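Subject: Interface between my chains keeps coming out wrong

I've been trying for a while to get a sensible model of this assembly. When I model each chain on its own everything looks fine, but I need the whole thing in one frame so I can look at the contacts. Pasting all components below, labels as-is. Any help appreciated, I'm running out of ideas.
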Amino acid sequence: MAFASIYVPNFMVQTIVRAEPDLRDRAVALVDGCPPLWKIIAANEAALREGIELGMGGSQAQQFCKVEVRHRSPEQEKAAHAALLDVGWSVSPRIEDTAPDTIVLDLAGLTSLFESLENIAAILAERSCRVGVRPNIAVASNIEAAIHAARGFTGITLIPPGEEPERLSPLPVEVLLPSTEIFETLQRWGIRTCGALAALPVLQLSERLGAEGVLLHELAGGKYCRSLILAEPKTCFVEEMKLDYAITELEPLSFLLHRLLDQVCARLEARSLSASAFCLRFGLRDSVEEESEVKKKSSVSIGESRSYEKMLRLPVPMRDSKTLLKLLRLQLQSDPPNGSIVKIILTAEPARPRAGQKGLFVPDSPDREKLEVTIARIAGLVGNANVGSPQLVDTHRPGEFRMFPFSPASEESAGSRKRESTSRRTAIAFRMFRPEFLAQVESREGYPFRVGFRGARGNVIAASGPWRTSGDWWETHGWREDEWDVEIEFDSSGHKKSSHRGAQNGLYRIYYDWMRRGWFVRGRYD
Amino acid sequence: MYTELHARSAFSFLEGASLPEELAEACAEHGMRGMALLDRDGVYGAPRFYLAAKKIPIRAHIGAEVTSTAGWRYPLLVASRQGYQNLCRLITGMKLRAPKGKGNISAQEVAERTGGLICLTGGAEGPLAHALEHGGIENGIACARQLCDLFGPGNVYMELQRHLSREEEARNQASVHIARKLDLPLLATNGVCYALPRRRGTLDVFTCIRNHKTLASAGRLLALNSERYLKSPAKMERLFADLPEAIANTQELSSRLEFSLNDLGYKFPIYPVPDGETQMHFLRERSREGMIHRYGPSNERARVQIERELTIIEKLDLAGYFLIVWDIVRFCREQNILVQGRGSAANSAVCYALGITAVDPVGMDLLFERFLSEERGEWPDIDLDLPSGNQRERAIQYVYERYGKLGAAMTANVITYRGRSAAREIGKALSFDIETINRLTKLVGAWEYKDANDTLVHQFRDAGFDLQHPQIRKFFDLCLEVQDLPRHLGQHSGGLVVCQGQLDSVVPLEPATMPGRVVVQWDKDDCSVMGIVKVDLLGLGMMAVLEESLQIIKEHYAEEIDLGRLPANDPVIYEALQKADTVGMFQIESRAQMSCLPRLIPKCFYDIVVQVAIIRPGPIVGQMVNPYLKRRQGREPVDYLHPSLEPVLARTLGVPLFQEQLLRMAMIAAGFTGGEAEELRRAFGFKRSEVRMKAVEEKLRIGMDRNGIKPEVQDKIVRSITSFALYGFPESHAASFALIAYASAYLKCHYLPAFTAAILNNQPMGFYQPVTLLKDAQRHSLKVRPVDVTRSDWLCTLEKNDQDFALRLGMRSVHGLRVEIAHAIVNERAMSPFLSIDDLKLRVPAIQKSELTTLAKIGALNFIPGKSNFHRRDALWQVERAARRPGPLLETLEQGKEFATEPAQEWNVEKNNLDPAPALSPLQIMTVEERLVADFNGTGMTVGPHPMGYHRQRLKKQDVRSASELSSLPNGIHVRICGAVIARQRPGTAKGFVFLSLEDETGIANAIITPPIYEKYHLMIVHQPFLLIEGQLQNQENVISVKAEIVRPLSVTQAETSSHDFH
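Reply #2:
Try treating it as a single job with all components included. I did that and got this:
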């Protein structure tokens, strides 16, 4: 039995260096959070030597001119971890996904393929370097010994069977990842190495530290044996297509997309799954005109590709390729890629299929798939940010609301809302203009006297106000407005109603925006 | 003309954003003739508002918004003294029956106390708004009728506020309708919450703090706009142009509000004297008895002085006050509670004769007018120092018992937003995360002195924040804006007010957090200004040390020491003082005091009085320290500002050092009376105003002109008075403190074990950390023994050690150990010694694992098993098992016994659990460094050698000098010193210089850091616990220090030592 552990020290920093190999020999510190509240969460040795401390503010860290400060990237960490798994799977089919920075391989029977354990370790190290990380690799006869050796020793470590206690002995107990409480106890006892911990009498230790103490004792002695927790191959459904020629039109693209969707949906069906989301990625190549434009503006080389990504989140899991194609087409119509497509990557996020039954006497509502297509069509017309259900926001700011994704309510809640809406009575309705109209207002003695907007002008025959609101003063987008309710009689005299571009005599709400320094018409009272 | 009759100040605690003074000033700027302050459920800000208004002058109307049981508030205005008393009683009633900060009143309660009060219908939080919202116009009419029934139809005003809100205007329309229907007068107000529109941000932040929200999540809890500022009459007239009578009625109502705070009706309690005697006669008798006791029967000077004082006391009708203070002192004496008057009371021979003070003002020729004068028309101020803790509490409870719950109360202490509290709460409101808030909080107010490079931008940048960032800038601006605004009401540490009869009719009373305590809504200054007599019963740590020392001496040395009869001019004491060997001594232990002592070379008691007074900002800023010391050493001729001042300044060698001298200078040079001179001191004192100072200075100069003093001499006199009045010490106060300093020095020099035990038992107090006190005592040959659960009590105790006593550290010094656990340990071991740690755990079951661990870690359990080789790690090994007892199964296995063969009856858990001779552990003994870390971590000190001591050999090789060596080295040589930083100071008066005290195993060395060196080594100086400093040795008149040129961190120990910083 032999196991190899791959451990990537200072994982978060290494993932950044992997993406920017130029940083390999430089001092690097990672920040997390948004300015001004950003902090150093990881740093390499060189950065620590420069005086960087974990927890330090981002601005403070930027004062260290020799230190490269980068933002933490969970995506790159994920990618690096996937790469680490790939390295593992490239050697052994039996892998444990121990932690983001650690994996364990079962090497049973592999010596016949790779000659020796030393060779395997060297291959793993070499392949890891190729995917951009520099790990510690340890091979031992049990999983935990391999993990701890990888955590504690730099480079490649091979522990012959039976030598685990001696080899692990000098390692600090921290590599065993004891709980904080036990770690503090060990510190108080002066137990700082695995060897010292392993030398303690186990029965007395169990009395003092319980089961965790016994486990740590075994771990420290390199004796603890357990089974590998096999990592399942990812249930990630990706279909990818490289194109011999670039596509710029939607129709031929739809044809290809349909094919890909069919394949993905068939795979999903085989696994009895649906998809909750699709990620569509295009590799793009700049057009000739664009290329020349880019050349003028920057030093980006022509051959450098760009990408385009579109995420399609589905309100319910689906695998109907026709519907999905319609949705994707609508998305692409509203936001087409800026370049010709040379590569298509379609990734489906698997989910359990939808199962449900409507009430027998409940009237049929639109099919969810169809509804989603309709909403997507509307979004294509008005923009994604303008589709959904408006909800009021708790603020004094006039007319403020937010859009939340539209989600049809259940039958019961719809009924209760109906009841609620009939019980509310409104004396006067206010019709809000969105966006508001720019207005020209003449004032006399502080009161609006003449108002003009949308090409019509009229006299104010009654005014009430100002109604003043202000707020969000701590933000950059604070507001301060003086509203007036005014009755306007437009100049097309003699007529009760002016038909001039919709400006009708009546009661309007106008306001002076102190930030924009201008008058606007907010709406009209019905 | 408009008068604002509904304004809240910041004393509405988080519901107002301007101080009363700011409101009054804004009022004056607008030319308003008066204003009414209606704070929430109290008259907290009333005295400050009244005083500010009096200066301007405008009329200060008083009132309050009183919370009803339904949650809305009655806006009540006080029309007469009866109304004020009713308001105070209403508030007192609601406050005293509810938890702190809560309370409300029912309509029935209001009905009983409406006389002299005028009720407004209120704004959004008033009764009418509530009624309209919950039942429309009909309900509104009913509400207005109910208010008319309660307060009388002429005493209800229909309040209209216009903050440019539609909802409010709709309410106003309804209010006008109701007013017309019920024939109620309309009244315009602005429901003011702050003086200026820009204060709205502060109010929004307060709203967030009150509702535990952030600005981002507070939504409509925040203000609609910024219209609640104090508007000018013209603005208000424009706003209410359609309802001019609402404006006119403000003037009419203002004229009806006759009450002013100068009409409180406060009376000091009458001291109960035997039948047929007057208070004055009784006081004369007590004074006479005291005079004979203090001065003997034939001291004519004392008799004359006492008679003069009694005449003034009689004239001012203050006999009762003196008798009440005398009564408290008498109680303390009877109860063996140390007590001593401090402050200006020590200028009074009557106080001395009555035993209130311990300094002889006749012998010291102290100025009585500093204490009391006919002109001032103020109550005298007597402060009593008592041992802090229980003894002081007993004295306070005595006053409560004697004058009843509504006859005595503590003065309040208004807790205001200061640097750190402001930063913390504003950070929260701005949604900063905890870590950021902590980092920002640390930035605030670290050093007393700020130089040009210490700008906030610099400090913020150092901490990783960009002040240009809008959010950080907003944080900073808000922090500045909320400075000094009230946060909540606390309790003053010792100020007690007493009253004849009902104190609750003079000022509302509230429950304090401490059970059984009642506080008034005003702080001590407000009480004093309002003419309410207070007696300060102050807790002084050193008094507690003295009292405890005497007790220990009595127990162990079998000697009774009377602090009133200590041997005068004890040479041992003066030798210690001259060597600046004063660690732990009252008022003369600080680094600054120590650096002055070898130059002043005290030889008599008066020198200690000078010593106490001279290291103060007044003499330092006034540049009086060096001239005095030089004159004392004969290096500068004694010179007087004017020959006529010689009698006043002779004993301080021509240099004014005390406030009394300032007063006398004014009396002699400008012919001021005693009262005028005291007025002068106040004009130049803490609350100085330019106008007042100018007026007094003019008067002073006229007087000096009259006496023929030349203008250049006048300038000198004025300058010395100006710079000195702010921070100077009264001589009487210095003398009172000097007495305590002398007593502490006496006990330290002659009874070091007892004194050290007492001072450690009363920590925290004084200038040094316990470890410094301990190390100093050890250097003076005191044997100190560590905490030991088989011997230590909760407090430090003395143990016989050959001819002398050794100090046994008490369990009080063990971090995290609860007092009840320590007492349980002591009680259990008194019954029978502990056999093992298991035994201890079994007999003191409440002891927690963390407590046992700490005890084991510091070696306090080493002596339980009675094995000489049992060490701390053995104890830690046992503790871990004791804290987690195994079941009987494992117990048996451990002992190698077979479960099956054990007879069932022997399964006595208790017996089996006890391990009379526990095996030693498999653990290694702690290293010296580990023990040091454990000691400092567990107790903040070590009884073993000083951490520096372990490194002396290494340091010697690096040519590092020990603290004790420095005195033998010549001035000017280049030296290296190092040690644990025990004090870092950057006094405001020192122009950016930083003073460090470095302690090693031989003593304390001082280092001076110049501003450039500080700039260079800033972070190291502030953060490093051990420093190595290279620089030039300065040995001037036995004052030794090293002027730093290079500062380096020193790696000595990981132990967490602590220091006294930045004061």
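Reply #3:
Confirming on my end. Chain A touches chain B through 43 residues (CB under 8 Å).
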